[in-house]
Amino acid sequence: MVKWSTVALRVMAVTVPIALGVAIVLASRADKSEPREKEAASRVTPVRVITLEPIDLVPRVRGYGSVSPANVWRAVNRIDGEITWTSDRLANGLIVEKGEELVRIDDTGIRLSLGQNDAQIVSLNVKEETLRASIAISADDLELSRAQVARQQDLVSRGVGTPAALEAARRQELSARANLKNLENQLALSNAERDVLSAQRAILARDLDYAVIRAPFAMLIGEVQAEQGQVVTRGQTLFSADGIERMEVAAQFPIGRMGPLVRGTGNGGGKGGPLDLKAVVRLRAPGHAVEWPAQIERIGEFIDPRTQSANVIVSVEQPFDLAEPGVRPPLRRNMFIEVELSAPARKVLALPAEAIADGKVLVVGADDRLAYRAIETGFIVDGIAVVSGGLEAGIKVVVTDMSLAVPGMAVRPLEDEVLKARLAADALSGSFKQ
Q1: Which of 101, 292, 294, 400 could form a disulfide with 48 if both were Cys (CB 3.0 to 4.6 A apart)?
Q2: CA atoms lying within 13 Å on the CB side of residue 355
Q3: Of 430, 59, 58, 61, nearest to 251 (Cα)?
């Protein structure tokens, strides 16, 4: 006879495992709703955005060119003679001041000619004094002759004079008149001779000044061809020099990149005048860059047909005074440097140029969903795109590089404050890099 305890154990051995299995299945079904919610939440993609706000932008463009002095002087000899003295400062690479004496040429011949000319003028002065005295006497003689003719005419009219006496008086008057005219002509010739001598003296005095060669401005001596004891002739070059008071750089700028600068400045340089822009000359060296303030002087007369670039000539005043040993070298001829032109700051809506693709940008709407918006750009400079249409302030533009972006996709926008601050700062400095 089977005991009830044994039956109970057998029933429990079967029912308990079944009950546990059913409980596990029910529990797993009850927990399925929670993973679905988490999975749905995980599909909301976080994206970096910047909210468009007006910022200050300084449009700028960079070009490159070589340095050349604004003033170049070639010391060309103007008289013939021997070089009797040269300055110790007349050597390649040395700087001389304005008015400094550099070369003397033998002027003995010129001084002798000046002495001869002065002697001729003194002799001419004596001759003129004599002529004036003779003219005064001849004028008195002519007056007496005219009075004699008048008396003879009166006597003939009264019948007491003879025609022969009248004729003789008239001949004497003609002789006195001719003598006076001759003396006056000699005085006129003497005056003309004085003018010739004065011109000759002026030429000799000028040549005497040419015998001493002085620096017309502060300059850097270049090639020297003059030596003491050397006999030189007119037209011979003695040395060359570059002015140091102002240096110029003819830098080339692409025409297409000049538009954002001159737009809105009121001066496009159409008549060759200077642009209303700020200019900086920069020499890039390893680890640092050296800058000089510059001024736009003029625009070149032609466009490079190969590069479609325009020449803009800028100048730097007193570059040697700005030099610092080991820090800022002096600007010298043929240095290849960078020139940066910048326009006054203006308020714009701007975003990184890399956020634009095929003329569109991704934006996040009020419902935190993606949408494409067509955009118009006024210009792009240094990686910054200036918005001219399609977007307005307050729009959130996606700056995350998304491999898959579907319109209507739910996202979680995260304001990229670092990128936004850097964009605003670099819009002023012109060094934005995404």
Answers
A1: 400
A2: 33
A3: 61
Domain count for the chain, please give it. 4
List all residues 6 or more positions away from 250 whose beta carbon is below 8 Å from its beta carbon. Answer: 65, 66, 68, 300, 311, 312, 313
Per run of 10 residues, the mean pLDDT along the chain (length 434 residues) is 53 58 56 49 78 87 92 94 94 94 95 94 92 92 89 86 86 91 92 93 94 95 93 94 94 80 55 70 84 89 80 92 82 92 86 88 89 87 84 89 81 90 83 50
| 276 and 307 assigned to the same domain | yes
In a domain, 163, yes or no: yes
Query: Residue 245 phi/psi, 5° resolution?
Result: -75, -25
CATH number of the domain encompassing residue 268: 2.40.30
Cβ pair 105, 266 in contact under 8 A: no
Bridge partners, residue 73, by sequence: 241
d(CA 225, CA 237): 7
- Cβ-Cβ contacts under 8 Å for 61 (sequence gap 6 or more): 253, 254, 257, 258, 260, 261, 340, 341, 381
Q: With b meaning 16 or more CB within 10 Å and e meaning fewer, what string describes 11-32?
A: eeeeeeeeeeeeeeeeeeeeee
The pTM is what? 0.66
Kindly report the backbone phi and psi dihedral angles of residue 407, in degrees, each rounded to the nearest multiple of 5, phi listed first. -55, 135
DSSP 369: B
CATH code at 365?
Answer: 2.40.420.20
**Closest C-alpha to 85, from 213, 254, 258, 221:** 213
Cα distance between residue 208 and residue 133, in whole Å? 37
Check if the beta carbon of residue 330 is closer than 8 Å to that of residue 319. Answer: yes
**From CA 169, how far away is CA 145, in angstroms rounded?**
7
| Cα separation, 410 vs 45, whole angstroms | 7
